[in-house]
Amino acid sequence: MIECKNIAKIYKSGEIETRALHNVSFKINDGEFVAVMGPSGSGKSTLMHILGCLDTPTSGEYFLDHKDVSQLSDDELADIRMRKIGFVFQAYNLLPRATVLRNVTLPLVYAGVSGGERECRAKEALRGAAFPENFWNHYSNQLSGGMMQRVAIARAFVNNPTLILADEPTGNLDTKTGEVVLDTFQQLHVEQGRTIVLITHEPYVAEHAERIIHIRDGNIVEDGSVKHRRVVHAE
Ligand SMILES: Nc1ncnc2c1ncn2[C@@H]1O[C@H](COP(=O)(O)OP(=O)(O)O)[C@@H](O)[C@H]1O
Ligand SMILES: [Mg+2]
What we know:
Blueprint: E1 2-13, E2 16-28, E3 33-37, H1 44-51, E4 59-64, E5 67-68, H2 74-84, E6 85-89, H3 100-110, H4 115-128, H5 145-157, E7 163-167, H6 175-192, E8 195-200, H7 203-206, E9 211-216, E10 219-225
Helix pairs in contact: 3-4, 3-5, 4-5, 5-6
The chain binds adenosine-5'-diphosphate and magnesium ion (MG).
C-alpha cells in the first residue's frame, strides 16, 4: 500500500542546500506496524512529512494505495491527507480550550460527516483509545500528557484512515505513560489492523513495532522484523 522509490529531499534556503534524504526506497504492506528509527537529524521527520503528504520529495516516487502522490498540488495533497492519513505528534497538537469530544469530532467536520454520526464515531474512537468516559467533556488543557496523547490517537483514528503516522508520540512522556500510549497503538493495531508508522529515535520505543526501518544521514541502513517484540499487554 505504501511504496517509496528513490526518494530524495533537498531543502534549499538561499545558497545553502541540505540533503535530508538521499535515495530512499521501501514498501510497507497494508496492516503493518513499522517503526522508523534513527538519531536526531537523520531525516525521520522529513520522511514523515512526505509519507503524510505534508510535503513532496525533490525526486523519486511515492505510491499511496497504488497512486503516485509525489508530484500533486497542495490542494490535492490536502484532500489525500483528510481522507487517508491520521497524524499523531510529539506535542499532541490539540485545541486547548475545546473539549475532548470536540477535538476528536473536528476532523469529521472537515470531512463533511453529519452531527449525529460525528459524535457516535468520536465516542467509538475514544473507547478504542481506552480514554476514560468521565473525561470526555473536559477541556483538553485540563488533561495529563498521557491522556492528551490518547485523545490525539483517537483523533487520528476517527476518520478511518488507511495510514497512521506518529512522530515521536512518546517524546514528551515518562516511560510508564509512554508505555500506555504504545499499548494503545498495539491494541488498535491488533483490533483494527491498520497500517501504523511510528517514528522514534529510541530503540526501546521502536521495539514495540513489528518491523524497524533504520535511517541514518538520509539513508536506510537496515530494515527487518523485530525479533523480541515488546508487548505491553500480553493477551
Ligand atoms: N525545513 C528545513 N529546511 C532546511 N533544513 C531542514 C528542514 N527540515 C529539516 N532540515 C534538515 O534536514 C535534516 C533532517 O532533518 P529531520 O528530517 O528533521 O530529521 P529528524 O526528524 O530525524 O531529526 C537535518 O539536517 C535538518 O537540519
Ligand atoms: Mg524529527
